[in-house]
TrEMBL record:
Pfam families: HTH_17. It comes from the Bacteria. Residues 5-54 form the Helix-turn-helix domain. Keywords: DNA-binding. One of its GO terms (molecular function) is DNA binding. It comes from Streptomyces caelestis. This is DNA-binding protein. InterPro entries: DNA-bd_dom_put_sf, HTH_17, SinI_DNA-bd.
Amino acid sequence: MADRYLTVAQVAELLGTTERFPRRLIAERRIVFVKVGRHVRIPESALDAFIDANTVQPIGDRRSSLRRAA
């Protein structure tokens, strides 16, 4: 199955940010991108990998891990 290539505007919309954020990710080389002439495209799989790498999992039930004072 072929990967979809997204514009900066599409990536910003999917992330719920302005276009400045994906452009900063590209400038800092924090996400994979493809240059087609002067156009920049981000593979959908690269966006998924970026989201997975930056997802923080919850710790769990904090009440059970707290000790009671004596």
